[in-house]
Amino acid sequence: MGILTGMETFTAVVKAGSFTKAAERLGISKSFVSKQVSQLENTLGTRLLHRSTRKLSLTDEGEQFYNHCNLIVSEAEKAKAEIVDGRQNPRGRIRITVPQSLIISNAGKVLLNFQDIYPEIEIEIIASGASKDIIDDGIDLALRIGQIEDSTLICRKLSECVFQTVASPQYVRQYGKPETPIDLTHHNCLIYASSKLSSNWPFRLPNGKEIKVNARGKLSCNDGHLILKAALEGKGIAFAPSILFQPYIDEGKLTLLLPEYAQPPVSISALYPSNRNLPRRVRVLIDYLSEHLPLSF
C-alpha cells in the first residue's frame, strides 16, 4: 500500500467517525479500511487512533498527522476537480503551428472565432509551415498542407486545396498570359519562400506526367502577405495554395492561370502526437476546425 492511499483512507475514517461509514464512502470493505489504517500505523511506527466499541478518537500523533493528511488530500481532490472540469469546460493553453497562407486565409478567422466560443482557452499561434519536432518543441497541434512526412504523428484531414498560379488582370494585359508551365520561365515570378515548394512549381501535363518549373523573378519573400500584395498590384505571377488566392479570384482582382495544368487537390491536415489522453481543449479545437474549415478552398 502506498502511503498516499493510506493517508486518504485515514482521513476518510477521521471525517466519517467510524470504519464502517468510511468504508461506505470509499466503496471498499470495513475490514480493508481497518487493514489500511493498521498498515499506515506500522509504517509510521505509532498509533494514530484510539479504538473502542463506541467511538474512535485521535492520539496526539494522529491529530498532528491528520492535519497534514487533510491538507494533502484536499489539494489532490482540488487538482482532480480542475482536470475533470477542464475536460468538460475546456481551458488552458494550446500551442499550434500554422502555415502563413492558412493564417492569411479564412482559417485564421476560424481560429479567432474559436476563441470567442471558448474564451478560457489560450492559443499561441506560431506562423510556420516548416517541419518541427512537435513533441520536443512542446507543440500541441500542427496544421499542414500537402503530403505528411512524419508517420509517427496522428494525422486527421480537415479540408483540401489546390495550388494555383495567378496574376492580376493588369499584369496579364501588360505582359500576356502563359499558355504552358514552361512559359513561366519568361515571366517575373513572385517566389513565396515560406512554401516548401519555393521556386520549384509543380504541374501536371495533360498526359498525366508531372513536371516542375524552376521559377525565377525579382521578388522572393517568406511573407505571404507581401507576395499576395505584389500579385494584386501587378508585380508578377504568384504560385501558392488556393486558400490564399481564391477570394480575390472570385472578386476578379486576380486571374487564374494554367488551371488545366494544376495538380490534384492536396489535404489540409491536423497533426498531433497521440490520441491517447489528448487534452480535451486540443480535441475540441480539432473538431471545430474540421467542422468550420471549408470542405475545399
Structure description:
- The protein has 297 residues and is α/β, with parallel strands linked by helices.
- It folds into 3 domains: 3-88, Winged helix-like DNA-binding domain superfamily/Winged helix DNA-binding domain (Arc Repressor Mutant, subunit A), CATH 1.10.10; 92-161 and 266-292, D-Maltodextrin-Binding Protein, domain 2 (3-Layer(aba) Sandwich); 163-261, 3-Layer(aba) Sandwich (D-Maltodextrin-Binding Protein, domain 2).
- It is 41% helix and 24% strand.
- It has helices at residues 3-16, 19-26, 30-44, 60-88, 100-104, 106-117, 169-175, 224-232, 242-250, 280-292, and strands spanning 49-51, 56-58, 92-98, 121-127, 141-145, 154-161, 163-167, 189-192, 200-204, 210-214, 219-221, 237-241, 255-257, 266-272.
- The strands form 4 sheets. The chain has a 5-stranded mixed β-sheet. Strands 11-8-12-7-13 form a 5-stranded mixed β-sheet.
- α1 crosses α3 (30-44) and α2 (19-26) packs across α3.
- It is rod-shaped.
- The two termini are 58 Å apart.
